């Protein structure tokens, strides 16, 4: 596999889509596919697909195409999906509860180990069999448990403080659903999910679809 440090973020963001389509093809017992056939399915050009995959090595064979199961396995490894991740959710309101109830995470190696909140009405509840703990116990919990990913679903005002705690607690990555940008320590990977920005982008395309 080639060195991935210089791969553009745009390429990385396309890989999960490739993987999802390959998974559907495997479910339908399809064994191989050409870049042209894949292009028709996924909406990227065949050239784009080949260029993206060539960043990580040559997975296809001229005249044969791609072995679907092999390519799925390779992309899973590139994305780091050949291991398991322990996650916690801070903020057990609507978004936090929706995430813990999204059982696909449990099937694909992302395991929610605990939930935290400041609301005494939520503390002690079990959501999808995950106990909601008091946020005051979060630093001690992180000391006692190796957590890979912290999911922040707090209000805007609390997000940075929570990020500081989980960074100090040794998490490797933060998935931020709070409606604000946060700062993280060096070595901690941050992925922001701004739902309003996605919705606003959709609104733009609705109003400019005749120009596209």
In percent, how helical is the residue content?
A: 40-55%
Distance separating the two termini: 37 Å
DSSP helical segment count: 9
Shape descriptor reads globular
Catalogue the unreliable spans. Answer: 1-5
CA gyration radius, whole angstroms: 20 Å
Order of helices and strands: HEHHEEHEHHEEEHEHEEH
Mean pLDDT: 91
The largest beta-sheet arranges its strands as 6-7-5-4-8-9-10
Number of strands: 10
Structural class, by secondary structure, is alpha/beta
> Strand count, sense and closure of the main sheet?
7 strands, mixed
Approximately how much beta-strand content do the residues carry? Answer: 15-25%
Descriptive account of the structure:
- This protein is of the alpha/beta class and 212 residues long.
- It is 43% helix and 19% strand.
- Strands 6-7-5-4-8-9-10 form a 7-stranded mixed beta sheet, sandwiched between helices.
- Strand 6 (126-127) and strand 7 (130-134) form a beta hairpin.
- It is globular.
Summary tags:
three-stranded antiparallel β-sheet; 9 helices; seven-stranded mixed β-sheet; 212 residues; disordered N terminus; alpha/beta; globular
Short structural description:
It contains 9 helices and 10 strands.
What is the element layout, followed by pairings?
Elements (H helix, E strand, L loop, with lengths): L8 H19 L4 E2 L1 H8 L3 H9 L5 E2 L3 E3 H11 L6 E6 L3 H7 L3 H4 L2 E8 L8 E2 L2 E5 L3 H7 L4 E4 L3 H13 L4 E4 L12 E4 L2 H13 L5
Parallel strand pairs: 4-5, 4-8, 5-7, 8-9, 9-10
Antiparallel strand pairs: 1-3, 2-3, 6-7
């Amino acid at each position: 596999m080639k060195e991935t440090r210089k791969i553009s973020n745009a390429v990385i963001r396309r890989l999960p889509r490739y993987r999802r389509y390959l998974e559907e093809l495997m479910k339908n017992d399809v064994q191989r596919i050409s870049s042209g056939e894949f292009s028709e399915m996924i909406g990227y050009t065949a050239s784009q697909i080949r260029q993206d995959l060539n960043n990580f090595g040559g997975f296809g064979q001229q005249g044969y195409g791609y072995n679907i199961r092999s390519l799925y396995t390779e992309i899973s490894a590139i994305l780091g999906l050949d291991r398991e991740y322990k996650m916690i959710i801070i903020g057990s309101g609507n978004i936090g509860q929706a995430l813990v109830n999204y059982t696909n995470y449990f099937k694909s190696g992302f395991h929610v180990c605990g939930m935290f909140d400041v609301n005494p009405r939520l503390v002690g509840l079990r959501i999808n069999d995950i106990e909601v703990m008091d946020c005051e116990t979060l630093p001690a919990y992180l000391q006692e448990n190796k957590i890979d990913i912290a999911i922040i679903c707090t209000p805007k005002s609390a997000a940075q403080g929570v990020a500081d705690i989980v960074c100090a607690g040794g998490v490797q990555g933060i998935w931020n659903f709070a409606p604000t940008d946060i700062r993280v320590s060096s070595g901690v990977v941050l992925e922001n999910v701004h739902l309003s920005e996605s919705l606003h982008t959709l609104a733009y395309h609705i109003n400019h679809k005749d120009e596209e």
